[in-house]
Amino acid sequence: MAISSGFFDSVDGDRLYDADQMSTYFEGLISDGVYENVGDKFLVTAASGLSVSVGSGRAIVRSHWIKNSEDATLSLDAADIQNPRIDAIALRLDAEARTVSLVVKKGTPAATPVIPAITRTETVYELYIASVLI
Q1: For the whole model, what pTM was predicted?
Q2: For 81-131, how does the pLDDT look when each residue is reduced to its tens digit (9 = 90+)?
């Protein structure tokens, strides 16, 4: 059984902590999701042309945080000529890139479109915040 504890002042470099240890501090205290009372709660609204605006907010994804302090604009690809599609707006943790970001996951055009599959791997973890019918 592995036991760890923290945080304590370092004496001659004997207590050095990494980002993983800092992030796991939140486990059990805060669950994944958007903070209910911060900013615009990542509200997704239509913007000009083929784009959406994502409002301000703060969220936790697998013990890593993201904060958006002003509206962010995300571009969407043009519609298919024959079939609609559903794109998903997501918060994506990419552990290898060491980022949490806002992304558009493009759906597949179909007569009856479906939301693209959410990614949940060891290194990439997504939370969908909206879907957009194109």
Answers
A1: 0.86
A2: 999 999 999 999 999 999 999 999 999 999 999 999 999 999 999 999 999
SS3 for 7?
coil
Concatenated DSSP letters of 37-103: TSTTTT-EEE-SSSEEEE--EEEEETTEEEEE-S-EEEE-PPPPSS---EEEEEEEEETTTTEEEEE
CB atoms inside a 10 Å sphere around CB 112: 6
**Which residues lie closer than 8 Å to 97 by C-beta, 6 or more apart?**
none
For residue 97, count other CB atoms closer than 10 A to its CB.
Answer: 11
Q: How far is CA 67 from the centre of its chain?
A: 10
Can you tell me whether residue 23 is helix, strand or coil?
Answer: helix
